Amino acid sequence: MDFFKYIHAVGTGPKGNRDLSFEEAKDMMQQILNQSIPNEQAAAFLLGWRLKPETVEEFRGAVQACDEMISKTTINNSIELGYPFDGKAKNPYIFPLVAKVLENSDLNLVVIGDELTPAKGGITIKDIVTKIDLNKNAHYFDRKEFFSKMSNLTDLRMKLGLRSGFNTIEKLPQVANSEYAITGVFHKPYVKKYVEIFADRYKKFALIQGNEGTPELFSKGRLWIAKDGNLDEFIVDPEYYGINYKKSWDTISLEDSLEQLNNPSDEYLKLAKLNAAVYLFVANQAASIDEAYEKLN
Fold first, then answer.
1. What are the tens digits of pLDDT across the range 49-92?
2. Cis status of the peptide bond prior to 238, with omega within 30 of 0
3. Helices (H), the chain
4. Could you report the per-residue pLDDT of 233-256, keeping only the tens digit for each?
5. Pick the CATH number of 78-296 from 3.40.1030.10, 3.30.70.120, 3.30.420.200, 3.30.2000.10
């Protein structure tokens, strides 16, 4: 379809806007990914789409278009960790320590990275994994290699400088064909949206009120698990497990982030253990978070 029709659908105001069908959303995403339209048209659509705003059906169509362009490599017994591509700005990453905690388990961690995208301006997964050695049970996939067409849009997105629908659909590309997945969610209304978009792609799908929108728990928060059409909610509180880590409210440098990974405090190691317990629970390797945490101890 003529791409201008998609711009018209999202850019004419409340009275003239309309939602795209699944097939239209798929075609829209294919045209943007193939860069068969001018960058100005792609940017105009992304801005209008966010303001309209996006629907679950549109997201599902866009995800389908992405699926057809992703080169996948199966990692058995794995859980996909869905991180935002705009990085972490105020706290270090914890997944490398979680992998060390889980090195004697059967669970593999899958993380995805690329160059920075809008809008937080934080430290990216790619920044971290290019500076440290990951445990053998942590598998890093660079988007430039498995989904180059999305990676090639990074410059356009940085020039736009705003969050877009891409920020929602890109975190879980299912690049390793993982049976389990967990991603972070900041606003509770997004829980239902993420479940409707992604849950049926996994044997078990979870969302957590993670630090800076990541699947990493740093303080008391909720965990939601979708399975067989049901959505269960749990409260996870580090203090319940005797963990007294204090998260930062100041901007962190890459050097400081790496230092906390290379020389973690006792409290940070305990926090890594709790996150590992959450992942074991999500991946059906423990009947509860308490059971998993006790096993890891």
1. 999 999 999 999 999 999 999 999 999 999 999 999 999 999 99
2. no
3. 3-11, 22-33, 39-51, 56-67, 95-101, 125-129, 143-146, 148-151, 154-160, 166-169, 189-198, 254-262, 266-282, 289-296
4. 999 999 999 999 988 888 999 999
5. 3.40.1030.10
169: which 2 tokens?
Answer: 């659909």
Q: Are 130 and 167 in contact (CB under 8 A)?
A: no
* Phi/psi of residue 12, nearest 5 degrees: -105, 5
Q: Are 118 and 88 in contact (CB under 8 A)?
A: no
Which pair of tokens denotes residue 4? Answer: 């201008």
Taking the C-alpha atoms of residue 104 and residue 102, their distance in angstroms, rounded to an integer, is 5
* Three-state SS letters, 173-186: CCCCCCCEEEEECC
The CATH code for residues 3-67 is: 1.20.970.10
> Contact 143/70 with Cβ under 8 angstroms?
no
d(CA 145, CA 290): 38
